[in-house]
Amino acid sequence: MKRRRRKDDGFTLIELMIVIAVIGILAIVLVPKFAGVKTSAKLVGVTTNVHELDTYITSQIGNWNAQATSGNAADAIASAAIIANYAGTSPDASKNMTNPISGQTLIESSVASGTVGKAATDAAIICDSGKTPSSLPAGGVVVTITMDTTNTTQISSVSIQGYDNSSKPYGPAVTVTP
């Protein structure tokens, strides 16, 4: 009697189960690594916002000091200009600044309102030196404007600090001087 040889036209059940098991093991190993990549990407967004504000403030600080005439005029001018540029309300506004953690585009200023930033989801909070926002923005940026002690109409420096998803300082603070 002649034995017939079986033709292998497909996968056996065991082969299929082995492939599924290998894919499952790889998924278990790789999924936690992808979660870290997502957080890292959001923190890169915080660094980008700090650099954008650094570039903008560096280019404008001389103009703000030239326009300031009384009191904290330089603060008000700087705050208004930053808000207008990054909230999309000025004619030359490049884009909205977005908090990469919360997705908010709100930029608050304690200079104009007299109160220190309230929302922990803001893209940026602008405040006078010596004031700290009541809640630091997770994924946001705090811009602190310091006036010259001898000439109170002039800005002596602007400090920019980004915050991570736990509202802790992320990266070094950037200081801009005229």
TrEMBL record:
<dbReference type="InterPro" id="IPR045584">
    <property type="entry name" value="Pilin-like"/>
</dbReference>
<feature type="transmembrane region" description="Helical">
    <location>
        <begin position="12"/>
        <end position="31"/>
    </location>
</feature>
<keyword id="KW-0812">Transmembrane</keyword>
<protein>
    <submittedName>
        <fullName>Prepilin-type N-terminal cleavage/methylation domain protein</fullName>
    </submittedName>
</protein>
<dbReference type="InterPro" id="IPR012902">
    <property type="entry name" value="N_methyl_site"/>
</dbReference>
<keyword id="KW-1133">Transmembrane helix</keyword>
<keyword id="KW-0472">Membrane</keyword>
<dbReference type="Pfam" id="PF07963">
    <property type="entry name" value="N_methyl"/>
</dbReference>
